[in-house]
Write a structure and sequence with these properties.
Mean pLDDT: 80
Distance between the termini: 100 Å
Structural class: mainly alpha
Number of helices: 16
Number of strands: 8
Length: 420
């Protein structure tokens, strides 16, 4: 045979195949199975070169005999690589991106055949895909009100979501390169498109709307009032507020430490975990007077509800005590907070926004509460005081400021409802 020595038993052979030639070699797959791997070419010499390379590679590493689709590889990668080696919330994040965005768009393509152009086309389409329509959200509601009734709600993915979807695909393809299934990562070569603007939606409250929300909550003795204060005045994320522990509340120095957060990951039980930072540090925030009085209210509510059956430890087994709990002393289910927030918006007569959107109102509230600019700078995490002062030049009227100050002073007065 031209260009090759005589082969021994089990080494494979070259033979005519369609319009060219083919050959096979015995390889061990990543699952440990011994099987044949085929190579193809136009001439005997081309096939022989491929065969020699295949034999050399098979002697060093396992060789897969089939190339999976994007959907199949993502399933393997999530189950065998991410789940055993990464945090639960990392797995949940990647699984969500794969299920909602990657697989519906390019899941049927083989990972070795996926091109930069196809990946770019998929990314370019994402900003225009209404997630309410794509996921059938509205059809599952008791009273459909948008996509299911033919009126698209334009629930388009944000730029952050699109970036996260590309990031999940990039991470999976990087592992495929490590396993020598592909030679390049097309997700790294594709550009991130612009997200579509959601028309007709304001993503923050005015100071007066925030004031009405807090006033209604306080006057109706809402047990979640301390939570709303932390979210609105300190700009805490929901998980950070729900994970706040009493050991991190320093009333003498008027500070709190954000060392923990509360999450529900992938339908699993609540986890109470460290709030990790890149440099290993934890955030410490000053407490304005309205937040101090909210902490006092939270403590009083717990003391009044505490019974002998109250748990003495957090669910993680640590000896810390949560600031915000249910009446039974248990951690508050994060998903219930979203429903409670929507109800409270309706009762206060303010626009319905998301809890995360309230963070944009934080700076204006601090100015209205007469919080010192240097303290506000620390809370807002501004690098320059000039950024903070830009907000402080747009303070609301005296009526709104006085109403907010009353919320902070109320706990210093006898509360007729509680009998104290």
């Amino acid at each position: 045979m031209s260009g090759s020595r005589a082969r021994g038993n089990g080494e494979g052979s070259i033979y005519p195949y369609k319009n060219g030639y083919a050959a096979y070699a015995w390889v061990t797959t990543p699952t440990g199975q011994r099987t044949r791997k085929y190579v193809y070419g136009k001439t005997r010499e081309e096939v022989n070169d491929k065969w020699v390379q295949l034999k050399a590679k098979a002697a060093k590493v396992p060789i897969p005999t089939t190339t999976p689709t994007v959907a199949d590889y993502l399933s393997y990668w999530l189950a065998e690589v991410i789940a055993p080696n990464r945090e639960d919330n990392t797995y949940s994040h990647y699984e969500l991106m794969a299920r909602l965005h990657i697989i519906p768009g390019i899941g049927k393509r083989r990972i070795d055949k996926l091109t930069v152009r196809e990946t770019q086309a998929w990314l370019n389409k994402l900003p225009g895909i209404c997630q309410c329509c794509a996921q059938g959200k509205d059809a599952r509601r008791r009273q459909p009100k948008c996509c299911a009734t033919g009126e698209c709600c334009q629930d388009y993915p944000s730029r952050r979501v699109i970036q996260a979807a590309r990031g999940a695909l990039r991470a999976a393809l990087n592992h495929a390169i490590h396993e020598e299934l592909i030679s390049r990562n097309v997700a790294e070569l594709a550009k991130l498109p612009k997200a579509r603007k959601k028309l007709g939606r304001r993503s923050s409250w005015t100071v007066d709307e925030a004031r009405r929300f807090l006033e209604t909550s306080r006057h109706e003795n809402d047990p979640l009032y301390p939570l709303w204060v932390l979210i609105l005045v300190l700009g805490l994320r929901k998980g950070e507020a729900l994970g706040l522990i009493w050991e991190a509340v320093a009333e003498d120095t008027e500070e709190i430490g954000l060392e923990w957060q509360l999450q529900r990951v992938g339908g699993k039980p609540l986890t109470h975990k460290h709030h990790l930072k890149a440099d290993g540090s934890t955030d410490t925030l000053p407490l304005p007077p309205i937040c101090l009085t909210a902490m006092t209210l939270a403590k009083r509510n717990q003391d009044q509800a505490r019974t002998e059956t109250w748990p003495r430890k957090c669910i993680c087994g640590e000896t810390h005590t949560l600031v915000l709990t249910t009446r039974n002393g248990r951690p508050i289910e994060p998903r219930n907070i979203n429903r409670a927030f929507d109800i409270r918006c309706a009762r206060a007569g303010v626009r319905r926004i998301t809890i995360h959107d309230t963070r944009r109102t934080c700076g204006s509230l601090l100015a209205a509460l007469d919080v010192h600019p240097r303290v506000a700078m620390q809370i807002l995490r501004h690098s320059r005081i000039a950024l903070t002062m830009e907000i402080y030049t747009q303070v609301p009227d005296e009526v709104t400021r006085a109403a907010l100050k009353r919320l902070s002073d109320q706990l210093n007065q006898p509360d007729e409802r509680s009998g104290t």
